[in-house]
Amino acid sequence: KIQIRGKKDENFGEWYSEVVVTGEMIEYYDISGCYILRPWAMSIWEILQTFFDAEIKKMKIKNSYFPLFVSPAVLQKEKDHIEGFAPEVAWVTKSGESDLEVPIAIRPTSETVMYPYFSKWIRGHRDLPLRLNQWCNVVRWEFSNPTPFIRSREFLWQEGHTAFATKEEADAEVLEILELYRRIYEEFLAVPVSKGKKSELEKFAGGLYTTTVEAFIPNTGRGIQGATSHCLGQNFAKMFEINFENEKGEKAMVWQNSWAYTTRTIGVMIMTHGDDKGLVLPPKVATTQVIVIPVPYKDANTQGIYDACAATVKTLNESGIRAEADFRDNYSPGWKYSHWEMKGVPLRIEIGPKDLANNQVRAVRRDNGAKTDIPVANLAEQVKDVLDSIQQNLFETAKQKREACVQVVKTWDEFTEALSQKKLILAPWCDEEDVEKDVKTRTKGEMGAAKTLCSPFDQPELPEGTLCFASGKPAKKWTYWGRSY
Ligand SMILES: O=C1CCCN[C@@H]1CCCn1cnc2cc(F)c(Cl)cc2c1=O
Ligand SMILES: [Mg+2]
User: The pTM is what?
Assistant: First the structure.
């Protein structure tokens, strides 16, 4: 039998690194912070992409592709927002033996690549709204500890960049896209997230406001930004002169948004559902939803069992279920059970002599290990119901675990106590940036400082006279705080 050594509740980092490799999602690469996405991971990315791409096309957003390379002049155009990022920019300085006249940057994000052309293409109000998306990779030469899917020097994402005549249109789209990100997490990855607004300190400095879907990893007690949807206001329009002649013939600047989700989504899902037997894949995103395993017996009708397995796969495939059979004769059924459990396949179907005789199959769930015998008669329907139940159970379980980590605090002492207990803290805050900076300073440590994660749109009741937990000033809003990735 094959086992993973790391235990999720003992050494989370080791457990995670092992699970992504033994689950055949990731292969480590000889350049630090870079990883190989193997088919078992790539197919999840493609399932999410298929959903999101179809949804943005319904919104009349068009895909495009802009160059990987950014000229330094244009990259440095957005002075204040990139100065903090400059160390992350990767540069091409040579081709072959010869140095480039001028080094060229590799895109860390594409505002400065795209917006000079937005300026060229947008002349009149009839050119609006301009709504483009690109599916691509970006490079950010980060130095903090690299983690497969979660933090890598190159990652896949989509980045949407849109321009509107009015702020109202931009505001509406920000939320429409954020809802798609919530659906990616909650409906596909079975990961609960909180929709909210980033603080002034945590938002994208180049924008007007940032909305986010925040996830939480109970094992590490850290929040993690799941995806982000920014309203850029007119900041980039001003910088890149993206103007248009409005209906009254006046010259006006456009209102812009930009939004992204990345391959980090896959890492959050693995961290949320994985267990000590390996990956646990939600059926909606499982490359293989059902693995059918023949359990031949010495003198039993082996061919009959194999035929029943093939027929089972065929029946399930015909009803849209992603099923495979493992006919390899050089591995025992027991070995196969462990192997496909490590790969996180949501449902296993075993067919042995008894099942064959009773015209049924033995179904075993990956999420809770429950075994049920299903008659071959209406197999597809029952398997679909079990898969739906697994999807729902994974989400509910993750939701309960996350809710159990939420700690409402009112005072500084309660805050530091909750932080030491790896809680997701919900606290009343005066919404002053200096206070947030002060909390960061006061909670500095080798585990990293506490920061605001988001102010949830869904605000609990804030009784008159409630004071900020950190400053004692009148509280303005409930905010999630915690350490983060
Ligand atoms: O988050 C999104 C959604 C999709 C488009 N982009 C925005 C903002 C990205 C912020 N950001 C994030 N990281 C960066 C790293 C860099 F090296 C440079 Cl030069 C800039 C940035 C930077 O602007
Ligand atoms: Mg960064």
Answer: 0.98
